Amino acid sequence: MIHHISKFFKFFPKESDKMSAYSIIAEYNPFHNGHKYLAECAKQDGAGTIIAVMSGNWVQRGDAAILPKFLRTEQALSSGIDIVLELPTYYAMATAQKFALGAAEIIKNTGADILIFGSECGDTKALIKAAEYLLTEDASTHIKEFLHEGYSLAASRQKALEDTLGLGSLLFSPNDTLAIEYIIAFKTLNSSINFKAVKRVATEHDSDIYTDDFCSARFLRENIKNDTALIRKFMPEKAAAVFINAATDGKTADINRLDRAIITKLRSMSIDDFKNLPDISEGLENRIANAVKASASLDELIGALKTKRYTTARLRRIVLSAFLGESIKEMPSKPTYLRVLGYSQNGSEYLKKIREASTLPVIMRATEIKDDPVFQFEARATDLYSLAQETPDPCGTEFSNGIIKY
């Protein structure tokens, strides 16, 4: 439970009495007090409905989510979120650009008024200014110049933003970087949505430092599986109960349980198979094929592939995409449906508006999209995810699990 959350609201004053639909892009891996704080900030600012677009069973850093998506949905709904929509694995376990564009396409179809997000700087105007600049031809020219000088793409973007606007430091902060990608994605889609940055409180992204109420999601993942006191300390009360019950039932997931299965799959693949994976460039398929032959575990493989050019997260995504059987030939650039994972009573009313506003089908039953290639990949990914759980499920849970109604 968050004991002192009200003390932070003085930094986030309510701007309007209008009851708007607020949207959040999240992984909730797992849901903790910081996520609850963001939802409370949205309500304090005038949110009548809060819609979360949440990654499914596989997350952007290239890992299995610690809890299955329907249990994370239950956590979110018990803690102030009204509707949870799924960001399919193809977009959730992808580059920041693809991740952001996939989530933005879904949110655009909900008719939400505002995207609210955590931020290191907390300066909405600065983030919008940085995003708008990165969309210009001038930025493209500057970035190319730095690339020709031997800088990485990330460093080139930072330098271009710093030299032109003095805002390059924003791209050194993970939440600010993602926020800029979100804004770029919505503007690319010609969305009229507004943005609201909320300054992170108490703890940094991925930090080991924690306070009485707040810690990073990474700290939680690494420390709470067998620590009920820590779970109750850093999760809202009802979300903590969901996690404790899941752990008791053997439903927490750990990628290490798939270690040998991953290597087995990759050893059976050809160079052409690797070449068709997302985010492969510059002959990386050859490097992976050679490293697979010499590696006996996932950690060994990532260690053999890691260089300054290739980040750990990128390599893990590529390797897990191979394990899950992903191919760039099969998939559309943007989501083709809005899949509802769960909703509250308040959310059920807004879902009617989404059905009216959305140009994409709003999916309540998995059978409605059983022939969609994005969902077919999702179903396969879920069947394999299950094997990372302490107690695996049979295949087909995408069809047997129902929507969470809170």
List the helices and strands and how they pair.
Blueprint: E1 20-26, H1 33-45, E2 47-55, E3 58-59, E4 63-64, H2 69-77, E5 83-87, H3 89-92, H4 96-108, E6 114-119, H5 124-134, H6 137-148, H7 153-165, H8 174-188, E7 194-199, H9 217-223, H10 228-234, H11 237-248, H12 259-267, H13 271-275, H14 284-294, H15 298-305, H16 312-324, E8 338-343, H17 345-357, E9 362-363, H18 373-385, H19 397-400, E10 404-405
Parallel strand pairs: 1-2, 1-6, 2-5, 6-7, 8-9, 8-10
Antiparallel strand pairs: 3-4, 5-8
Helix pairs in contact: 2-11, 4-8, 5-8, 6-7, 10-11, 12-16
* Estimated structural class: alpha/beta
Q: What's the multimeric state?
A: single chain
Rounded radius of gyration (Å): 21 Å
Number of helices: 19
Shape: globular
* Annotation, overall tally of beta strands: 10
Short structural summary:
The chain is α/β, with parallel strands linked by helices.
Could you walk me through the main structural features you see in this protein, from its secondary elements to its overall organization?
This protein is of the alpha/beta class. The chain has helices spanning 33-45, 69-77, 89-92, 96-108, 124-134, 137-148, 153-165, 174-188, 217-223, 228-234, 237-248, 259-267, 271-275, 284-294, 298-305, 312-324, 345-357, 373-385, 397-400, and strands at residues 20-26, 47-55, 58-59, 63-64, 83-87, 114-119, 194-199, 338-343, 362-363, 404-405. The strands form two sheets. Strands 1, 2, 5, 6, 7, 8, 9 and 10 form an eight-stranded mixed sheet that branches. Strands 3-4 form a two-stranded antiparallel sheet. A hairpin with a 3-residue loop joins strand 3 (58-59) and strand 4 (63-64). Helix 2 packs antiparallel against helix 11, helix 4 (96-108) crosses helix 8 (174-188) and helix 6 (137-148) packs across helix 7 (153-165). The longest helix has 15 residues, at 174-188. The two termini are 19 Å apart.
